[in-house]
């Protein structure tokens, strides 16, 4: 995003208040500041980063979850450049996903240098976790999925799992191939997900551009990127950041807005960007915003659970791997990222984790330590030094059939008030990329209202 030099502060400058310090709020604040607005970002927590953050547990610098991005996540990658954090992540030069099965059986899903979609032909042909007939059937279904229109409302109301069944995809193929991609990106099982949203994920990430699916991830704790680096960039852009300031109401007034804050003076604003989770947005939106709170509530939530294990020795030779025919969905080596000096720190990431959400820590230990030992023979002799679990009960909205119709765009019926968040209608599922794109969309929505002489506010149709 190109940023113009911001003029000196004066009475003619228009003030934007961004409510929420996640990636959507950070992107919106930087965008508005770059276009000359006076921006204040208000966050209820004592940090920035929203749903992608770090914490310290048992002396370990841990992330709340394993957040990856793809080469096609252009808005997120531009944000990393903007906040000076591009050197804190790594991006594969070419897609290569190790896929492990019990017994240590390892197969790679790698792209070739051929044009799309032929770049994946070799990977599928050599995917020995499926039989030959299954691989041929998957190839046919991939071609069919490439022709599904993600913007077709009839595709949005259909179940991806049911569509796969119609394409001859059995339960083993769904779990061993399709859900390797769909489950972590949609945070739902295939049967629970929207066909349109799944089609978007596969088309955007794998089928249209051969380089799009190359995997990236943070080399350091996420807090160093989404909090520390973002705060520095916001300060340099002239954005005032107010932490531990919970907004309680957004009140439209004749000449702007009054943003009420818990246990603090209210703030005046010419425009407001509401960049908070959809359930909180439903509570904060003015009654004449044109956004039905029940519509937002219908988006629901889906959980993510992460199992953190520190072994006394090295047991895993890869940066990450997917698992099939095992409870382990994805496992990441976070030893260097967490700056652990001894042993090896692994994190098992579990999406659509309704079952694991209700399990105790002891039950999860009994389930996942043997599962890791089945995948990683070296773990059988290793001693577990630390074990803990993190749970995000409402990690994402549910990209279920019909969800697209419930996702509002950035515009509300009140000029100068816009919505941002990965749950808004960016086309993307609930990802870091979707969050950043939503922030830019919200900024583009409110900025034109700042260059006009403010008039008494009149609701407009949305």
Task: Offer a quick outline of the entry.
The protein has 15 helices and 20 strands. The chain is an alpha/beta fold and 462 residues long.
Kindly describe this structure:
This protein is of the alpha/beta class and 462 residues long. The protein folds into 3 domains: 15-45 and 243-299 and 401-450, FAD/NAD(P)-binding domain (3-Layer(bba) Sandwich), CATH 3.50.50.60; 54-73 and 302-396, Polyamine Oxidase, Chain A, domain 2; 112-212, Guanine Nucleotide Dissociation Inhibitor, domain 1, CATH 1.10.405. It has helices spanning 23-34, 74-82, 121-125, 132-145, 153-156, 160-166, 171-186, 195-207, 222-236, 278-284, 293-297, 354-357, 361-375, 403-406, 432-450, and strands at residues 15-19, 38-42, 54-57, 60-63, 68-70, 89-91, 96-101, 105-110, 215-218, 240-242, 247-253, 256-261, 264-269, 271-274, 302-311, 320-323, 330-333, 344-351, 384-396, 417-419. α2 (74-82) packs across α15 (432-450) and α7 crosses α8. It is globular. The model is unreliable at 1-11 and 453-462 (pLDDT under 50).
Keywords, separated by commas or semicolons:
alpha/beta, 23% strand, single chain, disordered N terminus, globular, FAD/NAD(P)-binding domain, Polyamine Oxidase, Chain A, domain 2, 5-stranded parallel sheet, 462 residues
């Amino acid at each position: 995003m190109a940023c113009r030099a911001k003029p000196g502060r004066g009475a003619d400058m228009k003030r934007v208040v961004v409510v929420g310090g996640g990636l959507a709020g950070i992107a919106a604040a930087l965008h508005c500041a770059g276009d000359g607005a006076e921006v204040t970002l208000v966050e209820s927590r004592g940090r920035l980063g929203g749903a992608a953050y770090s914490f310290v547990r048992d002396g370990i610098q841990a992330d709340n979850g394993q957040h990856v991005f793809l080469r096609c996540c252009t808005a997120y990658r531009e944000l990393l450049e903007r906040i000076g954090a591009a050197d804190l992540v790594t991006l594969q030069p070419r897609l290569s996903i190790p896929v492990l099965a019990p017994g240590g059986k390892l197969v790679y899903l790698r792209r070739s240098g051929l044009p799309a979609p032929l770049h994946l032909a070799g990977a599928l042909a050599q995917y020995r976790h499926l039989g030959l007939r299954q691989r041929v059937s998957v190839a046919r279904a991939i071609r069919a999925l490439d022709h599904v229109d993600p913007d077709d409302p009839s595709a949005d109301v259909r179940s991806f799992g049911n569509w796969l069944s119609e394409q001859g995809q059995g339960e083993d193929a769904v779990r061993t191939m399709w859900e390797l991609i769909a489950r972590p990106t949609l945070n739902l099982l295939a049967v629970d997900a929207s066909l349109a949203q799944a089609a978007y994920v596969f088309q955007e990430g794998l089928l249209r551009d051969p380089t799009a699916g190359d995997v990236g991830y943070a080399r350091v704790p996420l807090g160093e990127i989404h909090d520390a680096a973002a705060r520095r960039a916001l300060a340099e852009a002239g954005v005032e950041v107010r932490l531990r300031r919970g907004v309680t109401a957004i009140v439209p007034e004749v000449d702007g807005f009054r943003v009420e804050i818990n246990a603090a003076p209210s703030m005046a604003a010419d425009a407001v960007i509401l960049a908070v989770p959809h359930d909180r947005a439903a509570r904060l939106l003015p009654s004449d915003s044109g956004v039905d709170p029940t519509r937002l509530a219908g988006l629901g939530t889906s959980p993510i659970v992460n199992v953190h294990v520190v072994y006394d020795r090295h047991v895993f030779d890869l940066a990450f791997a997917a698992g099939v025919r095992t409870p382990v969905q994805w496992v990441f080596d976070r030893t260097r990222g967490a700056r652990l000096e001894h042993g090896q720190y692994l994190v098992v990431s579990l999406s659509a984790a309704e079952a694991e959400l209700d399990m105790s820590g002891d039950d999860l230990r009994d389930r996942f330590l043997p599962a890791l030992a089945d995948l990683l023979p070296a773990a059988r002799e290793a001693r577990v030094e630390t074990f803990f679990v993190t749970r995000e009960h409402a990690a994402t909205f549910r990209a279920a059939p019909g969800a697209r119709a419930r996702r509002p765009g950035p515009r509300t019926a009140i000029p100068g008030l816009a919505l941002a968040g990965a749950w808004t209608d960016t086309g993307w599922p609930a990802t870091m990329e979707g969050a950043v794109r939503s922030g830019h969309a919200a900024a583009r929505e409110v900025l034109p209202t700042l260059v006009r002489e403010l008039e008494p506010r009149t609701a407009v149709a949305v």
